[in-house]
Design brief:
binds L-homoserine; Dihydrodipicolinate Reductase, domain 2; alpha/beta; 11-stranded mixed sheet; binds NADP nicotinamide-adenine-dinucleotide phosphate; 28% strand; Rossmann fold; 3 domains
Length: 440
């Protein structure tokens, strides 16, 4: 088969698909000059063929029969940028079974059934590439998969959701409340009308499941990720963090712990106070960044645009050219093996925490609270108290904000339960982890 012309079928022509078509049209002569390969797009599948796409595409190319594109014998490579679980899964499996390399940006699908898709690609001996599924335009998965294949990676920690990073940046820099910053993100097109997947951490959870699979050669799905979003973070929390030299970020973390009985993993998404000196604290606006820690390589950081049509299309096109070159030489990039591994539960993890309490503003209360921390072996690092009396019709109330030294999560939870049971504690407010460098 002559592969000097690579015929590509694209499933989906929305934000990413339309940008990809435009980028291929713009870069095709450069790709040809550098690789000897020319890319053609004879078929594009969409849901509604009457919609304008904003790119120059012949109407004869567009179809609503996605399966016909995925299995068309004249198509060499399939790009899946339609999103969702079904029919994307069935279409990718059909294309792989027909011996076609597949490029996908679909993090939700990979995080739900990556092992099945990886095995299908391996069985057919073709590429399944998915650089755009994590951190959009940032070339991160290929370095993780290739350059760091033999590196004993211990932790990957990142800001992998641009919408929440934008919201937290506005709350930090403009003092905005969460609801106002979210409304602004929706106006700018970062957040969807239903922002749940972004603000509750599900989007970042899918991404960290994919990252953990690749970094540790493990079977990890979204269901294995402990997930908490940013919707409960308040302007007061952000102001406290600023006063104490921290930035609040939504972190996605994958970690490996060596134990005498084998490795254990943790995969989690949660808001975190990050010291301003940490490189992730400086990642503003809708940007993404991923921080990798390896035993041999030390610390690495990847930074850039995590979303948007053009940045994401850039990652898809890089994969497409890679797959096309491999196809021509009869090679494919093996993804290796993915084995089941034990997960360390959140309760077993140690962390430093920022805790906020509303209490009675009277003598003896601070002593009672300090006593509860002492009884549970949880040590207070720093503390601030503000009287709220006289504000918003509140009488004899104070807010206490504390940071505690690293402690097992189960001890922190037991402390919070005991504090809630005290008559003098009116409510336990925010509880947010604090990143302590060097602490695992
Ligand atoms: P989008 O704008 O909603 O586009 C989806 C496209 O797929 C549309 O053209 C739609 O057709 C088509 N489609 C959906 N279901 C279909 C079906 N059953 N049969 C045929 N066509 C179908 O989505 P997107 O933002 O481009 O995202 C695409 C993928 O990239 C998703 O997996 C997403 O998670 C991932 N991704 C997106 C970004 C980003 O910044 N947008 C970043 C990283 C990864 P119609 O146009 O006719 O409705
Ligand atoms: N909704 C995602 C974000 C973009 O805000 O980062 C696609 O991954």
């Amino acid at each position: 088969m002559d592969h000097s012309v690579i015929r590509v079928g694209i499933l989906g022509c929305g934000t990413v698909g339309a940008s990809l078509v435009a980028l291929i049209q713009r870069q095709n002569s450069t790709i040809q000059a550098r690789t000897g390969l020319s890319i053609e797009i004879p078929r594009i599948a969409v849901r509604d063929s009457s919609r304008a796409r904003g790119v120059a595409v012949e109407s004869s190319v567009v179809t609503t029969d996605a399966m016909a594109v995925a299995t068309d014998p004249s198509i060499d490579v399939i790009v899946e940028v339609m999103g969702g679980l079904s029919p994307a899964r069935e279409l990718i499996l059909a294309a792989l079974a027909a011996g076609k390399p597949v490029i996908t940006a679909n993090k939700a699908l990979l995080a739900a059934c990556g092992s099945e898709l990886f095995a299908a690609a391996e069985a057919s001996g073709v590429d399944l590439l998915f650089e755009a599924s994590v951190a959009g335009g940032i070339p991160f998965l290929r370095p993780l998969r290739e350059s760091l294949l033999a590196e004993p990676v211990v932790r990957v920690m990142g800001i992998m959701n641009g919408t929440t990073n934008y919201i937290l940046t506005r709350m930090t820099e403009a003092g905005a409340e969460y609801a106002d910053a979210l409304a602004e993100a929706q106006e700018l097109g970062y957040a969807e009308a239903d922002p749940t997947a972004d603000v509750e951490g599900h989007d970042a959870a899918a991404k960290i499941a994919i990252v953990a699979s690749i970094a540790f050669g493990a079977e990890v799905t979204s269901a294995d990720v402990q997930c908490e979003g940013i919707s409960k973070v308040t302007a007061d929390d952000i102001a406290f963090a600023k006063r104490h030299g921290y930035a609040v970020k939504l972190l996605a973390i994958a970690e490996r712990f060596s134990t005498p009985s084998g490795d254990e993993l943790s995969a989690r998404v949660h808001p975190c106070l990050i010291p301003n000196a940490h490189p992730l604290a400086a990642v503003r606006d809708s940007f993404n960044a991923v921080f990798v820690q390896g035993e041999a390589v030390g610390d690495l950081m990847f930074y850039g645009r995590g979303a948007g049509g053009d940045p994401t299309a850039s990652a898809v096109l890089g994969d497409l050219v890679d797959a096309a070159v491999n196809l021509q030489s009869g090679a494919h990039a093996s993804l290796g093996t993915f084995v089941p591994m034990a997960f360390r539960s959140g309760e077993q993890l140690e962390a430093s925490w920022y805790l906020s309490l509303c209490v009675d503003d009277r003598s003896g209360v601070l002593a009672a609270i300090a006593g509860v921390f002492g009884e549970h072996g949880v040590s207070i690092d720093s503390m601030e108290q503000h009287s709220l009396s006289g504000t918003d019709d509140v009488a004899d109330e104070a807010r206490i904000d504390l940071i505690i030294h690293p402690a097992p999560e189960r001890d922190v939870q037991a402390t919070l339960d005991a504090l809630s049971a005290l008559d003098s504690v009116r409510s336990v407010g925010s509880t947010i982890r604090v990143l302590v460098e060097g602490d695992r």
